[in-house]
Structure formats: C-alpha cells, structure tokens
Amino acid sequence: MNNLKTYEVLCVFFxxxxxxxEISILGRALIGFDSDFLSAGVTxxxxxxxxxxxxxxxxxYSAQKLDDERSAIRVTAKSxxxxxxxxxxxxxxxxxxxxxxxxxxxxxxxRLEAQMLNYLEDLSENLHFYSTFFLEETEDINTRxxxxxxxxxxxxxxxFHEKFHEFDPYTNFVGVFDNINTNVRNRFxxxxxxxxxNDLPKELAVMQNESLKKR
Length: 215
Fold this sequence. Notes:
elongated
C-alpha cells in the first residue's frame, strides 16, 4: 500500500466494479445468470487490497527472518569457536604419563568434546534453516555465488566432523594423544573453524545487504 497513491487505489476499485458489471451483463445475456455485480466488485477489490497488504508485509518479514537466522548463525559460530579453543587447550595441556579413560582429565575431555560438537551441530542446523529460507526467497541469478558459498560452508562442517572423528575418535582415547605434539591436526581443524566463524558471518552480511538493495 505504501507504493500506491490514493487515485491509483480508487482506479483499481472502479476497474473491479466495471469488470464485475461486465461479467454480470454477459452472464445475464448468455445464460440468464443474475448476480450482484456491486458485491462481487467490492469482494474482488478487497481481495486485491489483501494481496497488496500481504506483499507489504512479506518483504519486511523476509528481511527480518533472514536477519534473525543470520544472528543465530553468528552466535552459534562464536560459541563453537570458543568451545573449540577450550577443548584444544585442554588437549594440549595433557599432564603427561599414561593416558587413561578414567579420572578427572578424561571426564573433562569428554565434556569439552561433547560441548564443542553440540555447538557445531547447532551451527549446522542454523545454517540449514538460513539456506532453506534464502533459497526460497531469492530467485535472482546473481545470488548463485551466495548459494554456492552456503553449500561450501555446509561441506566444511561435514569435513570437520569427519576429520575430527578420524583424529579424535570417542572409542580410542589413548590414540588421540599420538598427535598431540604435532600441529597438523590443529592447523587443519583451525582453518575450518576460521572459515565457519569469520568468513561465514561476513558472507551472510554481504548477502543480506544485497538482498535489502533489491527490495
């Protein structure tokens, strides 16, 4: 309604009335059908107004929905990054000796690992919700790059899961510490963490700005 002037709305109203009048006249002449063209015209006009109001509501709602989903991703990405650093610090501070799957160190290890993976799962779900909504709301060919990037970040989450369990299986606690003194694992996983926690929020900010410009 904000984009329509008063005279334009009135013109639409009279067009609806005239349209229904013509249909009423044709119906009476061809098949003897008698109808209340005025009521029909008002109903058609009301439907038009409802459609306009829906479109006025839909754009702000879509923008707000994207912003909410983006905020959720930003929050969970930050939580995931912090939990990863906390877990990694705990692993690097292994007190030495023979690793055991009992005791306070192992219990804390398992708690931090579960916490980190839970945050990663939350991030994956939020990214899925955002991607689904974004794909439904955008059809412009210029958004293809953004869609491809969303797929890329989803794949990064899967890779982190696979490599993390490869390096740090739940059932092989002793084997975990074979790689503690090497930085290969840390560099690889940290590279993914930086992509998810730094590059992904930046990408979403660009996507939102471009989306708002098109509305």
